[in-house]
Amino acid sequence: MRQWMLVAGGFFLSVAATALISSNPSVSRRPDRGSSYRGASLTAMPSAFRTGRLVPLTNASSVTRWAPVLRTSVARRAPSFRSARAGTVPARTPEHTTNLVVADGEVVRHGLVWVHVPLAVLPNGTEGWLPRTSLGAWSFIETHLVIDRARLTATLFRAGRAIFHAPVAIGASGTPTPAGTFYIRDRLKGFADPFYGPLAFGTNARSPTLTEWPAGGFIGIHGTDQPSLIPGRVSHGCIRMTNTAITRLGELMPVGTPVTIR
Questions:
Q1: Which residues are annotated as catalytic?
Q2: Which residues contact 170 (CB under 8 A, 6 or more apart)?
Q3: What is the C-alpha to C-alpha distance for residues 162 and 88, in angstroms, rounded to an integer?
Q4: Residue in 72, 132, 67 with CA at minimum distance from that of residue 101
C-alpha cells in the first residue's frame, strides 16, 4: 500500500525593515540577519500557514515534522515538570511571527506526551522536552538545506535528491557562521532596505559572538544588494545569496526545513 504525507507549504509574513549602519566597515556598511535586524522597525501583518499538499511518502527517513508553538512554554532537560529548565520556548519569534519547533522524538510520562525539540538558545545544539499540549498540529516536509562553509555553497535536498544549488557568503572570521544542525522557523519579506534582498529565512541558530545584539543574534539566510560579495566570508554570521537564488529557494523551501551548517 502506498503511504502518503501532508507537505506543509510554510507561512508568510510581510514586514517593513529599516536597518542601522554597521560600525564594522570591514564586514559591511549595514548589519545582516545575524544581528537580529538590530534597530529594525518591523511592522507585521498577520501570518498564516499555507495549505499543504498530499504527496507519496517516498523516503520516510528524510521526513521532518514540525508544529507551531501555541503558548510560551518552559522546555525541560528531561520529560518531567520536575526536571531542570533547558530554556524558554516563546509563542512568537523576535520578528513577531508564529514560532515553531521541529521534533525528533516523544515519550509518555504519567499519561502526558512529551516532545523532544532543539531550542533557539545558546549554546547552539541545546535540546529540551516540551509537553505536547503546548504545540499545534504536526506538519511534515521532505526538504533539507545543507550549507557548506568550506565550499561556500548551499544545497537544498528533497527526499534525498538535490533540487537547488547556489554560492553563498557566510560570516567573517570575527563573526563566524556557526556549525550545527538547525531549522527554518520563519520567513520574512517586504523589507524597506534592499540590503536584505526580497526574502529572508530565520533559523534557530545563534551567533556565538554577537550575544549582546537584540534578541541574541539569530542567524538568517537572505538576499543582498551587494552580489559582488558572493561567494565570500563577509557577514556578521548570516548566510547571503543573490536575490535570484533566494527567490528560487523561497519557491522550494518551506518553514520547518532542517538546516545543516558544516
A1: 222, 238
A2: 147, 149, 152, 176, 177, 232, 233, 235, 237, 239, 240
A3: 35
A4: 67
Strands 169-171, 232-235: pairing is parallel
The closest alpha carbon to 234, from 170, 160, 186, belongs to: 170
How many Cα neighbours within 13 Å face the side chain of 3? 7
Mind listing the pLDDT tens digit of every residue in the chain (262 residues)?
333 333 333 322 223 232 222 223 333 434 454 444 333 333 333 343 443 444 444 456 789 999 999 999 999 999 999 999 999 999 999 989 999 999 999 999 999 999 999 999 999 999 999 999 999 999 999 999 999 999 999 999 999 999 999 999 999 999 999 999 999 999 999 888 899 999 999 999 999 888 767 667 899 999 999 999 999 999 999 999 999 999 999 999 999 999 999 9
CATH class of the structural domain 9-48+141-261: mainly beta
Domain residue ranges in the chain: 9-48+141-261, 61-140
- For the full predicted model, state whether its pTM sits above 0.85: no
CATH architecture of the domain covering 61-140:
Roll (2.30)
Query: Which is it for strands 258-261 and 161-167: parallel, antiparallel or unpaired?
Result: unpaired
CA pair distance 110, 69, nearest whole angstrom: 22
C-alpha cell of residue 186: 520563519
